[in-house]
Structure formats: structure tokens, C-alpha cells
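pinging the channel bc i need a second pair of eyes. not urgent but kinda urgent?? the chain im working w is below, pasted from the shared doc
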Amino acid sequence: MLIDEFKEKFPKSWEKLKVFQKNNLIEFQKKISAGQNESVVFPEIKDDVVEKSLEGMMMFSIRSLYEFFDGNNIEIEIFRGWKYNVNNTETNEEYNSRIECESAAFQAAFKLLESI
């Protein structure tokens, strides 16, 4: 799913995901500055930076979404045979690979988050 399509289909979830990612970036800044002799000052993290980092995450580190959903009380389980369960609702559909199954599970989780 393309980022623009995602933002359009799941606008509430996108905003929650942006907050999650911004908090991760702020924590990363804190880790970088820890132990520095001089006080390190970082610029404010703007929305465009958050969105670019989310684009990268969605392309290269999609599994980071498990932590995001855990933080929003949405549990995702992937089973052998490549089926998934989102908050105790199991799908009957079998997928051809783990990646395909996870992608479908994340979309189902975003749909649930959108309705909350």
C-alpha cells in the first residue's frame, strides 16, 4: 500500500502513527546526546521529517508496526500456515508468505484502530 493511499484510507491511524514515530525520534535524539560533554541541542522535529521517516519505516522496517499496535492495545498474531489474528479475531484466509500475511494483518489492525 502506498503512503498516500494509506493516509487517505486510515487518516486517524496515520495521525497516531505520526505521534508514535515522533516520540521514537525524540527518544533517539536523547540517546545520541546522552554522555556528551557538551550540551547537544537538536532542532525541533517537524512533520515533514516524521513523515519521511515513516515512509522509510513502511518500506524497510514494517515490523516496527508491532510495537505501535501494542501501544494502542491491538494485538497481532501470525500463525503457521500464514494466517493472522487481530485482537482475537482470526482470519480464515491463508497467505502465501509471512510478509503477505503480516501486510494483511497490519491493514486489518489499521482498520480496527481507525474505528476506535
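so The chain has a mean pLDDT of 88. and The beta strands are 76-79, 83-86, 89-90. — does that match what u expected or am i reading it wrong
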